[in-house]
Amino acid sequence: MLLAIAIMALGAVVLGAALGFASIKFKVEGDPLVEKIEAILPQTQCGQCGFPGCKPYAEAIAKGDVDINLCPPGGMEGVAKLADLLGREVKPLDAEEKPKQIAIIDENTCIGCTLCIQACPVDAIVGAAKQMHTIITPLCTGCELCLPPCPVECIRMEAITENIDNWKWKYPVVEIKAAPLQKAA
User: Fold this and answer.
1) 154 annotated as a binding-site residue
2) H or E stretch at 3
3) What domains appear along the chain, each with residue ranges and CATH number?
4) Which residues contact 48 (CB under 8 A, 6 or more apart)?
5) DSSP run (H or E) holding 117
6) Using one digit for the tens of pLDDT, what is the confidence trace for 46-87?
7) Model-wide pTM > 0.85
């Protein structure tokens, strides 16, 4: 009896492993073109392009439904990269190009209404009801979505000056591979 239970348990484990493997084996990946387009977009999730985030905009670009010049945070650099990827013409940006920026909360003025927290698409604002809020600067994408809901206008945008910590936001990281060393004869 005990042996039969052990054999059934082992069978269940083997079956579960087999089913788990099957689900991984047949996993459907996303559209590679959408993923490449999305990798070029700045991931601000700001909606300035008219879409609720970077992925829906990337999907619309891949379908050919929209122009590639609608992303102000991506700027002309983003338009040029998208044009190169897609073999399209580089068009002028359809909005004013802005420098990289982050939100700053005047904590003395903040009333703790939580409206900015609800508006932030990347959860870069922390605080509690009726307590002051603050920005987690490394998470802030500068989307400006926290500005309109603030009833006391205690949030401002501040341009980020380029330094050693944030230069990579502007320039892509390039991996350099050295050639293998040859042994002397």
Assistant:
1) no
2) helix 2-25
3) 32-86 (1.10.15.40), 99-160 (3.30.70.20)
4) 70, 71, 72, 73, 95, 143
5) helix 115-119
6) 888 999 999 999 999 999 999 999 998 888 999 999 999 999
7) no
